[in-house]
Design a protein that fits this description.
homodimer, alpha+beta, 2 domains, three-stranded antiparallel sheet, DNA-binding
DNA sequence: GCCCGAATGCAACTTGGTTGCATTCGGGCC
DNA sequence: GGCCCGAATGCAACCAAGTTGCATTCGGGC
């Protein structure tokens, strides 16, 4: 994991929003860039602590909110009621894979999903597709 | 709302599981039958209280769990981290509509959605489609 | 009527998340 | 360089959803 380049990338992305790249923002975005799935608040706290850069849970919540509002991150709520965050890529028909065993969420390549009919009077904004099952890791672990 | 028939229907459904139709179970299932969308734990508590049949929150959680396990109800977690429950119908490709304004979940008729490719080593069990937008009520309210 | 397991109710607790407020940071201005 | 002001941070207290442990009650079989 090339954390140096993630650091630079993070700073760049934040600067592009016209905001100052504070330590907390850079750190969180860097952690998100370093994961290829999505990370829960808890996991991010842990990761920050492991890097000897512990950050306040409130700051983390606020930074995550900020990143989501700015469109740099996106959040998804799993069946376990836990929100998970990932870096945002431009995506349409964005699908997720949720592992029923470990609860982690993975982003899937875009999929050509047809929109179901909505009842009359309802306005559809976007459609969210989640595939449930077991991730490779959990499958191996249980084998 | 014909609550008498809902009561009988509830008793019947529970009996069909070979379980005793206790007051709490009948009441909760009856409430679920009476709603055509889904109801949160909180809404059910409120409804029970309104009917002068208040029930303990723990009992409600346990009854809901029981109903889900027995296949009489199903639960869905919304973006607001709140689980909502509805009566279960047999459905494949079952889609939901989640109102971004009021957070309520509606069941949509089955939809012919194509399953996205999963990464190698992943096992897909089922696919969950949720349409986001505004429900008729919230649209009217904001107009 | 008695017994036993299942169902219920209460209280205490855990977890994910929020709010309020005081402090610190950092960048523009003199 | 020093000052000022708003934004960002950190702490503590709080809240809501959900869970756990345990004592009590219900209800059906004997």
């Amino acid at each position: 994991m090339n954390s140096g380049s993630h650091h630079d990338k993070a700073v760049q992305l934040i600067k592009e929003c016209g905001a100052s790249a504070t330590a907390a923002r850079v750190q969180v975005l860097q952690l998100l860039l370093a994961t290829n799935t999505t990370a829960s608040h808890q996991a991010l706290m842990q990761a920050a602590t492991n890097e000897a850069q512990p950050l306040d849970k409130v700051t983390l919540y606020r930074v995550l909110d900020w990143l989501v509002v700015r469109g740099l991150a996106h959040s998804v709520t799993g069946q376990d009621r836990v929100r998970r965050f990932g870096v945002a890529h431009v995506h349409h028909g964005h699908a997720h894979f949720e592992c029923d065993a470990c609860g982690r969420l993975f982003c899937l390549a875009d999929c050509p999903s047809t929109q179901p009919r909505t009842p009359p009077g309802f306005e559809a904004r976007h459609i969210d597709v989640t595939v449930h099952g077991r991730c490779a890791e959990c499958l191996q672990a249980s084998a």
